[in-house]
Amino acid sequence: MKEKFTKFLVLLFSLATLTTYAQQKKITGTVTSKADGTPLPAVTVTVKGSSLGTQTDGDGKFSISVPENATLSFSYIGFKAKEVSVGASQTINVSLDADERLLNEVVVTALGIQRDAKALGYSAPQLKGEELTKSREANVINSLAGKVAGVRVSSQSGTLGGSSKIIIRGESGLGGSSQPLFVIDGMPIDNGAQQISTVAGAVPQGSAGADFGNRVGDINPEDIETMTVLKGAAATALYGARAKSGAIVISTKKGVKGNASVTFNSSVRMDDILKMPEFQNEYAQGVQGTYNIASTNGWGPKISDVQDKTFPNFLAQDVHLKAYDNNIKDFFQTGKTYINSLAFSGGNETGDYRFSYANISQTGIIPNQKYSKNNITLNAGKTIGKDFNIRTILNYANSGGDGRPVQSSNNPNVIMPLIYGVPRTVDMELLRNNSINPETGQQITLTPARNGNNPFWVIDNNNFSNDLNRFYGNAILSYKILNWLTVANNLGLDYYNEFRQGNTRNGTIGALTGNFFTANIFNRSFNNDFIATADTKITNDLSLKVIGGANVFENYYQRNQSDAQTLTVDQLYNFSNAATVTTTNTSNKWRMVGLYGDIGLSYKDYLFLNVTGRNDWSSTLPAENRSYFYPSVSSSFVFTELMPSNKWLNYGKLRASWANVGSGTDPYQLAFVYGPQSTAFAQYGYGSQFPFNGLLAFSIPSVIPNFNLKPQNQITTEIGADLRFLNNRVKLDVTYYNSKTDDQIIALTLPQSTGFTSKKMNAGSVTNKGFEVALGLVPVKTNRFDWNFDLNFSQNKQTTQLPSEVTAYTLQSGWSGLIVKTRSNESFGIFGSAWERDPNGNIVIDPATGLRKTKLDQRLGSINPDWMLGINNSINFKSFNLSFLIDVRQGGVVYSNTASSLRTSGLAKETLANRGNIFIDKGVVLQGTEYVPNTVPVQSMQDFWGQFSTTNTEANIFDASYVKLREVKFSYKIPSSILGKSAKFMKELEIGVEGRNLWIISDHVPHVDPEVNFFGPGSAADGIEFNSAPSTRSFGFNLRVKI
Amino acid sequence: MKKRLIYAFCGVLTCAITLQSCEKFLDINKNPNAAENVDPKLLFSYASTSYINLRSSGDLYIPMALGGQSITTGGNNPTGWGIPSEEQYQFSTFSYGNTWRAYYTSVGANLKQAISLAESATPKNNNAAAQCKVLLALVVYEATTVYGDVPFTEAWNTGISYPKFDAQQTVLNGSIALIDEALAQFDDASALKISDYDMFFKGDLAKWKRLAKSVKLRTLMTMVDKDPTKATQIGQMVTEGGLVSSAADNFKVGYQAVTGKKNPKFAINEQYNGGRNFFFGSKYVVDFMRNLSDPRLPKFFTKPVEATDYFGIEPGADGDDKHDVRISNTLQAADAPEVIFTYQEELFYEAEIYTRGLGVGADLTKASTLYKKAVEESCKFNGVDGTTASTFANGLPNLSTVPAPMALINMHHWVDKMDRGLDAFTQWRRSGPEGQEIPNLSLPIGAPAGKLFRRYEYPTTNEISSNPNAPKELVKYNEKMWFDL
Description:
The complex is a heterodimer.
Chain A: H1 2-12, E1 26-33, E2 44-47, E3 53-55, E4 61-65, E5 71-75, E6 82-85, E7 94-96, E8 106-108, E9 114-116, E10 126-128, H2 129-132, E11 151-155, E12 164-168, E13 181-184, E14 187-189, E15 224-230, H3 233-236, E16 247-252, E17 258-273, E18 286-287, E19 290-291, E20 311-312, E21 318-319, H4 327-331, E22 335-347, E23 351-363, E24 370-384, E25 388-402, H5 415-420, H6 428-433, H7 455-461, E26 464-482, E27 485-504, E28 515-537, E29 542-567, E30 578-603, E31 607-618, E32 627-637, E33 649-663, E34 675-676, E35 679-680, E36 688-689, E37 698-699, E38 703-704, E39 712-725, E40 730-742, E41 745-749, E42 758-762, E43 765-781, E44 785-801, E45 809-813, E46 819-822, E47 829-835, E48 854-862, E49 867-877, E50 880-890, E51 893-896, H8 897-904, E52 924-927, E53 930-933, H9 941-946, E54 957-959, E55 962-973, H10 976-979, E56 988-1003, E57 1024-1025, E58 1032-1042
Parallel strand pairs in A: 1-7, 13-16, 38-42, 51-57
Antiparallel strand pairs in A: 1-4, 2-3, 2-5, 5-6, 8-9, 10-15, 11-12, 13-14, 15-16, 17-22, 17-58, 18-19, 20-21, 22-23, 23-24, 24-25, 25-26, 26-27, 27-28, 28-29, 29-30, 30-31, 31-32, 32-33, 33-39, 34-37, 35-36, 39-40, 40-43, 41-42, 43-44, 44-49, 45-46, 46-47, 47-48, 49-50, 50-55, 51-54, 52-53, 55-56, ...
Chain B: H1 2-20, H2 23-26, H3 40-56, H4 61-67, E1 71-72, H5 93-120, H6 126-147, H7 168-185, H8 205-223, H9 230-240, E2 251-253, H10 264-272, E3 280-281, H11 283-292, H12 297-300, E4 301-302, E5 326-327, E6 338-341, H13 343-356, H14 364-381, H15 386-394, H16 405-416, H17 421-429
Antiparallel strand pairs in B: 1-3, 2-6, 4-5
Pfam families (chain B): SusD-like_2 (PF12771)
InterPro entries (chain B): SusD-like_2 (IPR041662), TPR-like_helical_dom_sf (IPR011990)
Keywords (chain B): Lipoprotein
């Protein structure tokens, strides 16, 4: 049955029927690694005592004619050599043992070129697939957190299927986010996080709204064989402009020779809110101590003081006030995640296949939030004849979610303030059961007017959803023309169509007449690489490898969006049911052509030198500036090869590299154009749509274009060492790098009195310098017990240089004076209004009010951590494995709007202090020219906490440091002795428990998870929380079966 | 055979790559979604719409009307605007920022570019440039009366990244200069002008010229208390005439009773408050009108059925749904126009000029006629029938019989502008030195101790933080500006 299925699959995808070759005196076979069964390419196969010899091909296969009774010798770097006598059999399959003395890693580098790790002149850590699925995540980016030195991951929000940002060695760009290039099996794939704004929610400054995820989230983590993080320009030089912020190179799993296998994995997990705000439970809603049903706060009377009275509740019933201590907790539910995957794989001498299906289904902690993702992947390869290889990798992904929480502001559906703003006296169950009036069908609001949407009305009725269909895949043809010359072509396509919709039902306060929008987003990228590789030995000791290639890339993006206003029939989201529909469309296309080369020399397997060069031509730059060339050189030296063998230092390598990389800009940044306008803004989202009074309208651009843009330029130097001691029981890898990106293509923020918001120009530089240390220890290793301890540390110092006339550069405008910007000699930081201080640092108080004075536009801290640390422990005892990952961030600041809202509204626990007492804030007042201690009390604590509103940024700035228990996994591989008879067909059975983000061991931000990144992956800004959907912790079970 | 295949394979690929990498392949950087050339009228329509939206929206109308106390929130009334709010001087930084953004970018910069396009066209479109200049002069006047010292001489210049802030006097004189330029540029002989895309006057140049002069007169009137030398020019202008001279000259744009095109004042009540008006009548307005049995009362306000008469409330006090009036939904109808300059306003200025003898001999009789005519026009403008309007206006006291004629004119002038947030606020600020303004406003209930609202603060995000030439000291909302004595 299995055989039939195998053949069916292979036939299905148009690969020739599997056949084997047999010849007299000809021996064929496959060389594999004993540890994991993967085929080993380039293994030297010689006939002992003769000059006959060959090498295994890319799939570990070899074929050699031998005399009778010969002995074959197999040798390969990093493995112990093995000799096998040729008997009667014409097939000899050999598995080689790893030689622990030597580093045996083969690393997948740029363009999918597999290279021996010791030959690399730069840091390129590689993660195995199982590392990424230890504690499964829908978005594979999140699985990188804490695992690789120099890599920082942050989620936009706790939205299911939400987006995550990944920064390698610090943000290098002033002009937008520095996201690395993602490459799967040689095909660069799109990792966009498309933002759209809608008519009803039109806000003049950055708005993220609902988080619809970033496109790398579409990948199935179970398909990943290895993931290499190419951090520096030397590593990514061959990818050119698109990889200036690093590259994540993924190789997907392939079928291996031997019996077909079926792997099934199932995980079930429970999610709940990671960090619940702390609420006060003593005061009701109101103003300055007086109850008011129209307030969503905690500034009313003390509940225990008014038990002799009754007050109207939101149902207009007169009730005695009572605090519902857990009402907010009661709003949330336990989210559930089901992750199931099934993979069939197999292969023989000439072909292999792997077919997988994976499904993730999630429900959120906010009711009615759902996310699901389906992945189907086929990876099949075939060798035709001796020298022709074809491999096709086809991926289909469907993902989508319902009930995506709306974040940010200026939209009646922004959910978190509605939930957290529910007064202490409101019974959440009563609110849940009374969101709609059964007689009238109208909403029962929490308060009578404009801010009073019942959160259950919003989540029950106003659905923000998306549905995405994506296909990406590539075909790789390679042909070995001569023994030393191979040509290959890799043609890939990545295509997706996302449909988004956001409904706001009639009767929602803020949109009482109802509205909805739909957006169709289409993206297509096409990539072709043609590569010729020449590999030859110049002398016995000196080898030369030359790679030459050409790349053509095109990306096309299109979005059609329609916003419908004023719906007639309730809950009918059809354009014909709307009084007006505003339709907008946009598109862009850009292309890039590149020619590149790589010359590699290796001397005696211990000295390596690589020189690369690439020239790109970009459509987005002016014709005279569109061509740009950049070189790189890297070298490594395995000095232990020259030392006598010793116990202490068994392996040592030094590496150094220098690289230059250029990059272009976005399309259509050069010409001054007039854009047709669909609306003219008016506050509260109800501006005018065009045609207005029968007239159309156009506007000048908000950015002054630049006709003379040139490519930006990055230069990186990197040195490092890789040392292994005590027979690999201690591994130490250290790296120092210095990367400077000059001539940045930026949109320099202009004061709006210029008539524009910014101008495009080449200016400024960002330097990132840092250390990375990866330390691996094996403190205990016995036959039954071993303990692996891995630690990765990174420290990055970022500095900006701006032209002298530019005092500051705005990376992202926020709200209420909050800006992420940078100045010369500083890192990216949060700026905003701050408490005024005297020369001694005391807060200055206004003697008229007793309240603090405010100063505008002050730097409030860096958005970057000082350092990061990941501590990974893996303990094996017999068939048990326990592993856990602790993730530490030290330094930097975050801004929390949720903390601000909870404090200004008097709902946070800390607002209980001093209520009803005379409170004199600690600070000074200016008397004449002297500062003297303040003696003026504040009028009320409501006034005092009112200062913590968004109009004072500093009040809501916190230290972003944290220590988190990121992942825990405990698993048990059931030994074959227990499986008994089942062991015959069951190759592997593993059960386990796993958890993610289980515990914030330490942090400094009240009420919210310090790991926040409201602006998402598209922005260089970080460290902002703005009504963000809360993050979750999850815990569950896993079952893995391989047959 | 194999070799040939290889050669063919390589050849095809090489050709494909070579061909593709030719320049044409990369010449695709032309934006398919925007135009490289447009008629200036298309920028004018966007600027006009953005301008009226700003004036009638939550960024300017609501804060200015509440801060200026010409309307009130209704305090803790459940369907009132709610407190604390702008009435308690809690101004949103959005209001500061969006107002600035509109004046300088969506409105100002588009007008500036439209002027440039009109003047560089062949043949030159002088009238279009002049029309844009008059509107720009209004924008400049408003920007400075909202924020005080603002960039003007170096604003809207792509060669200057960090415009300096000009003194208010310079800005107001600059606004006047723009009008003078426009008046000299209007060319009746030319058929080239913005006509179909002119939402105000449909290209009627005579009206544009009268409006330009009246706007100039208003600017001079705003300056004259601080700079008495302006009196001469004021005198010349009223003597020469050519000012707004009938209701047909009113400078306004109608909204449409169509979703997405409704007056924002109406839309906010419709979308957030079930159609019920958020705002209550201010006692300063309503008490004055009630004492006169003003026929505009039912036009301005909706009286509760239970109420015996029209009663306003003190700003910040709780509105009583059975007693206190709300702003009328007829006044703030879906298709109500945004009004920028009216005939009655012109008459109030002229009445003031003759009362005070600004550049002309003081003439209370003439002033009486003018102020009564102004009130009559205001009544008619607000839907009162001609006879009632005339009877009411003529029944008002002659200025010679009242102890403080200027106070009476100022009060009527302010009441007429009750629904025009910023305009009423500016009229109040120029009506007398601090503490003697008309009406004599008190601090709203719940407002922080200190002085009354006087201006918007500068917006940090939009200007201060990115302009090294901007003032770094916080200028508070209750600090007076140059023209405000």
